[in-house]
Amino acid sequence: MSVTEAIATITAGPKGPEIGAFFDFDGTLIDGFSALAYFTDKLRRRELGLREAADIIRTALRGDMNEREFDAFFAKNVAEWAGHPEDKLVELWSRLFRDTIAGWTFPEAWDLVKAHQKMGHTVAIASSATRYQVDPIAEELGIEHVLSTRVMVRDGKLTGTVDGMTLWGTGKAQAVLDFATRHGIALAQSFGYANGNEDIAFLKTVGHATAVNPKPALVAAAQREGWSVLRFARRRKPSLAMRARSAGAYGALAAASLGGFATRRKVRAAEWVSARGSDAILAVAGVKVDVAGEQHLWAHRPCVFMFNHQSVADDYVLLTLLRRGITGIAGIEAMQPAIDWIRRGISVVIAPEGTRSVSPRLGQFKKGAFHIAMQAEVPIVPVILRNTYTVLPRHSRLFRPGTVQVCVLPPIDVTAWQNENLDRHIADVRALFQRILDDDSNLAPAHN
């Protein structure tokens, strides 16, 4: 089954909060295990001892654990947190998510979550990990409910012990059953997604079970039970083909840069290199760009082009579309130079979020870009990008073939705007972006 077919099944079914959608975390929402980021961070900071490292390696090599083995392994690791302030642990996992784990998120899983949310389903993450590990992605995905293994906390500090059962194997299944009873969830009509052999009991609790990148025993169970199977493209282990394609893409960019030296004028050379180089790198990388509203890219210059910032790929897509007569601005300290550029006939390209988001989620808009448009008395032209996060993930330089969808909206006249109403205007513009990002009715599907 493809992700497109899975989403079609979701949207063809009943709506409402009595339908549940339960997602495993490690291996289902993200590629791999969040604990790897934790232990890698400890190793980098020289806080991982040889004995602890050896235990981790032995556990990894042993493969699947039964519930008794997992409980012992989990208890041993939680014991090391004894005496640690809880807020420090929250801070640690927030940093690990932002810096590392967010880049492992499966875009396909993101699309499934959003499909369930659009249907008004009760979406929850069910994981054997702790809440500290799971909460950051739950917040990023807008998931309210988290079922996780609890640890004991007294006076704001961890005791180093588990509070209740671990959500591994039958423990996760029981947690889902209990949650369904409390929230009035119709499990026979609900959905479950997981990748591990230990999740078979959990998947049996729902009427629509899906094995995601399943391990062998789960594949066999899916065949016996008639469950759906989804396979997501790996995020952490790029293929040789991806590496070769990306190397070729950057080579094409370098070749275009050399070609730019043939032009005499510096500005013309820079524009030629930027546009042709971006054309080349996207073409060789296998990235297609579909544009709606392309006429608005040219009809209202100079202007302030505003875009949602998801990936380094945004730069290449924008350069291949805008071509010439533009300059990028990254920071509020550049406000006056930006206004000067506009008055010289050069359009400004700026991300109102201020920085790249850690996921496809739209961030909050800052005021600087809007002040530039107001003071320069030029329109805002929204450029909404979809799937750049998919074709070039965060913290990666390796391209993935795919289609970037771009929607360019008509210009927004700011000449009548007043500072006292700016917050409302900004909220309205952000709502425009969000509406386009949420409405995929006129856009080609992002995944096969």
List descriptors.
448 residues, alpha/beta, six-stranded parallel β-sheet, six-stranded mixed β-sheet, 17 helices, globular
Main beta sheet strand tally, sense and closure: 6 strands, parallel
End-to-end Cα distance, whole Å, is 9 Å
Q: What do we call the CATH topology of the largest domain?
A: Rossmann fold
CATH architectural category of the largest domain? 3-Layer(aba) Sandwich
CATH class of the largest domain equals Alpha Beta
- Low confidence ranges: 256-264, 442-448
Rg from alpha-carbon coordinates: 24 Å
Which strand order does the major sheet show? 3-2-1-6-7-8
Q: Which homologous superfamily in CATH is the superfamily of the largest domain?
A: HAD superfamily/HAD-like
Total strands: 14
Number of domains: 2
Number of H- or I-type helical stretches: 17
Strand content: 15-25%
Bin the helical content: 40-55%
> What is the residue-averaged pLDDT?
86
Structural class: alpha/beta
Please identify the oligomeric state: single chain
Give the CA-based shape. globular
Structure description:
This protein is α/β, with parallel strands linked by helices and 448 residues long. The chain has helices spanning 3-12, 34-44, 50-62, 67-79, 86-99, 107-118, 131-141, 170-183, 200-203, 216-225, 240-260, 266-285, 313-322, 335-343, 368-376, 388-391, 422-438; strands spanning 20-23, 122-130, 145-149, 151-154, 157-162, 191-194, 208-212, 228-230, 287-292, 304-307, 326-328, 347-350, 380-386, 402-408. A hairpin with a 2-residue loop joins strand 4 and strand 5. The longest helix has 21 residues, at 240-260.
